[in-house]
Amino acid sequence: MRGNRGAIGKWGLIGTILYIAVLLVIVWHNWSKFSSLEPNAWGDFLAGTFGPLALGWVVLGFFLQSKELQNSVDALKLQARELAHSAEQQKEMVNVTRETLMHEREVLELQAQSRKISIQPVFQIVFGVDVITGDELRRYKISAFNTGADATHFSIDVYVDGGLFLNTERRYFRKGDSCIVAHQKLQRTIEGTLSAIVKYTDADQETFEKHYTISPNDENGSEYIVSCNLTRPA
């Protein structure tokens, strides 16, 4: 940019010097005529001779301004490209940051889920017959074993056709603990639908319910299969 301005200014200065030199030569060789000119004639002469010179500098100034404007436009285009490139880089960085945050969130969620699973008790529920008399009367019982984490406020309720049949409660039910509760009355084979609900509180002080189905495993009704079909917050 400075090189172009310098070249135009240099040629303008050379042209001006040559123009003035030619003008001086003409005046020198015709001095006898110029010396007799009236002041107003000198004014017209000077105006006429320096008018083209002034016009030439106006034209040079126009070219200089055009060069300046073109350089400004080029600089703005370059700046716009750099800004666009910078914006693209920022967008890529935002995408990378977003993906990193999403990955970290997934890791934290998995860690939280893993921890939550680790503090849950694991119950083994067994329902069956404790005593069978000679006249086929039975005493039913249910057993619970905790092979997982410690729990508090443990309770287990057994229902026959929606009515409470057996229940027990424990304030603390730690890992390795077990409890057994038997029905106090002897009775014949249960004909209704059996189910059970276990409630407990984990180490985070959250209370959950586990729902079980109890199904006969033989024709005599002495063995049963206990299956958990639902776990939810209480």
Characterization of the model:
The chain has 234 residues and is α+β, with helices and mostly antiparallel strands. Helices cover 48% and strands 31% of the residues. It contains three helices and eight strands; from the N terminus they run αααββββββββ. The protein has helices spanning 2-29, 31-34, 39-118; strands spanning 123-132, 138-146, 151-160, 163-173, 178-182, 194-201, 207-216, 224-233. Strands 4-3-6-7-8 form a five-stranded antiparallel beta sheet, with no helix packed on it. β3 and β4 form a beta hairpin. α1 (2-29) runs antiparallel to α3. The radius of gyration is 52 Å and the shape is rod-shaped. The two termini are 79 Å apart.
Short description:
It contains three helices and eight strands, in the order H-H-H-E-E-E-E-E-E-E-E. With 234 residues, it is an alpha+beta fold.
What is the multimeric organization of the chains shown? Answer: single chain
Shape: rod-shaped
Helix vs. strand class: alpha+beta
Distance between the termini: 79 Å
The radius of gyration computed from the alpha-carbon positions, rounded to a whole number of angstroms, is: 52 Å
| Largest sheet: spatial strand order | 4-3-6-7-8
Which features characterize this protein?
234 residues; alpha+beta; 5-stranded antiparallel β-sheet; 3-stranded antiparallel β-sheet; 3 helices; 48% helix; rod-shaped
Topology:
Elements lengths: L1 H28 L1 H4 L4 H80 L4 E10 L5 E9 L4 E10 L2 E11 L4 E5 L11 E8 L5 E10 L7 E10 L1
Antiparallel strand pairs: 1-2, 2-5, 3-4, 3-6, 6-7, 7-8
Helix pairs in contact: 1-3
